[in-house]
């Protein structure tokens, strides 16, 4: 298939692209490359690409593809909180416009990287795709907005699919430390201590970025009827963990480290569990292969391999909000999160 991947230079995109290439798909990327200075370890597989802001996409950029995998955007709550208007502009309005353009030029499939943050604070209840939207942040609101508007575009020739990913983890050429498991292992590795600010009871579903990529691939290869205007939680039911359980796993995987809990740490508001049975039932080709323990082992080995230092861990290179703030502070990005200097196309 001819595939356009937006956000191909991000944490998930740089893992997804090689997996698509391994399946002989013809892949083109589109990304403004906000994290161009943030590569971890070995480089990123080069593919034909359009270096462009998603807000500036034109019909000619999206023409001629069988499917668009749309991942570009501001990718977590802290970044989404930076400027809620911009979050709406980039994550919501530009995504809806991208889908409209895709439909206009005859791209039949559009798979959106949505999020379990659509459900907001869920508590103990297991949330499935029928559960009510209850976004509690600008980031969550932007994802819900896209799902609502893009689902209206579905017709005989245009099939959108919404993949509601759990919190990601895993090693990527664009590694991030602002994700719970990546962060806990990095704390343990660089300081020998894992400090948990809550009481450790909140639930958090997590999913490896390779398994997220498998979900994209399974959805694009599935018969149209199976995925037409459907939403899927992406993860495994067994991978709903309490933060405390994740911390215990990290303590077991990273030799000599100790977990500590804040004395006044109460339960965290961000607590939810998701039911991922639907994707396993409807997309039999989706075979997730990771769990938290294997993920912690992978991360630990990668940190050892690169000799991760506390300075790097605490620096801005691998934390999205800190990196964007640094680009804003140094004047490389303008207040609209666009590169100031002309970029090569
Ligand atoms: N990582 C997670 O835990 C997670 C969970 C659920 C959903 N998602 C979603 O998956 C997608 C990818 O996430 P990620 O973790 O790889 O994020 P990321 O921040 O690592 O990558 C996002 C990419 O989008 C690009 N981008 C940002 N704004 C852009 C713009 N205006 N124009 C063009 N490109 C732009 C960035 O340069 C970056 O390469 C996002 O939509 C995110 O919301 C991520």
From TrEMBL:
SUPFAM superfamilies documented for this protein: NAD(P)-binding Rossmann-fold domains
Cross-referenced Gene3D superfamilies: NAD(P)-binding Rossmann-like Domain
Residues spanning the signal sequence: none
Pfam families on file: Epimerase (PF01370)
Domain annotation NAD-dependent epimerase/dehydratase: ranges: 3-235
Ranges that cross the membrane: none
Name of the featured protein: NAD(P)-dependent oxidoreductase
Lineage: Bacteria, Bacillati, Cyanobacteriota, Cyanophyceae, Oscillatoriophycideae
